Amino acid sequence: xxxxxxxxxxxxxxxxxxxxxxxSLEPELMFALAERNGITLPYADVEALRAAYEFGNLQDxxxxxYQGADALRTEQDFYDLTWAYLQRCAADGVVxxxxxxxxxxxxxxxxxxxxQLAGISRALADGxxxxxxxxxxxxxxxxHLSEDDAxxxxxxxxxxxxxxxxxxxxxxxxxxxxxxxxxxxxxAREAGFACVAHAGEEGPADYIVQALDLLKVMRIDHGVxxxxxxxxxxRLISEQMPLTVCPLSNTRLKVFADMREHxxxxxxxxxxxxxxxxxxxxxxxxxxxxxxxAVRDALKMTREQAVALARxxxxxxxxxxxxxxxxxxxxxxxx
Length: 335
Ligand SMILES: Nc1ncnc2[nH]cnc12
Ligand SMILES: [Zn+2]
Known about the structure:
Layout (H helix, E strand, L loop, with lengths): L5 H6 L2 E3 L10 H11 L8 H6 L6 H12 L5 H18 L1 E4 L2 E2 L1 H5 L5 H19 L2 E2 L2 E5 L4 H11 L8 E5 L11 H9 L3 E6 L5 H9 L5 E4 L7 H10 L3 E3 L1 H6 L11 H7 L3 E3 L4 H4 L3 H12 L3 H13 L5 H14 L1
The structure holds adenine and zinc ion.
Adenine (ADE) binds next to helix 4.
């Protein structure tokens, strides 16, 4: 058994399957966009903004995350946001990304989905052409809003469907169970989109069951509270249902008091198909590689476990079987 150094972790071809583009808005870029757009942020400078990133729970974070997203106004802003993230991916050895964007965060401020998607898609295309990073975009509904609002969002996005391949569900989990969104997920499935949902981050194991049974998701985002139901853990193992786990997010939002208490490697050893992801890297202190490093340092992750996590990220992705096989061959070389 040996422990992986950071260069080894970087060299593993990895996919990132759970990150919110709005959550990669670094304070420096937020201030630059605010200036470009003539907005005054309620913080004196970058340091004051970073100092505010102390969260007691998910809602504390979401309040700042939505406030920060207000700096995003133009097509170029969405481009710059996405491009900055892709450059971080290149530096971390991320070869494929399936990011979320939250259209309702912006339509409510009068920014059409077409404008958001134009900037995001242009950057993703450049990511493929210039950095060799492939991508599939996920449109995520805000669960604190109504299902009717989600349906209106899907309808506005349908004429732009060439830009995204799946729908997701995020924002305030407690009190907004998956069953609230059964109809809109059925409509999305009917239209041919894959489905994923945040469940079991702060919410109970039953929300994971609802996401599986009612929303018919192909991955669970977070899912770490599955351990509260041994029967559910067995189901996740037997169905090889991927969990997109976000270690730094979970400790920064106090889902786990300390990284040494995180359950990701226990789940991996039990046979659950877990992956490592960064969620909102600008707010939680690190991109994908930093999450691998944090798990290695706190939980003594082995090389074999790191390779298994990277492998899971490829096989849980929306890449075709052929594309997955290519990355798995490269992963075997790097391992
Ligand atoms: N960790 C998270 N949970 C729920 N909604 C989110 N939106 C952005 N990050 C999120
Ligand atoms: Zn998330």
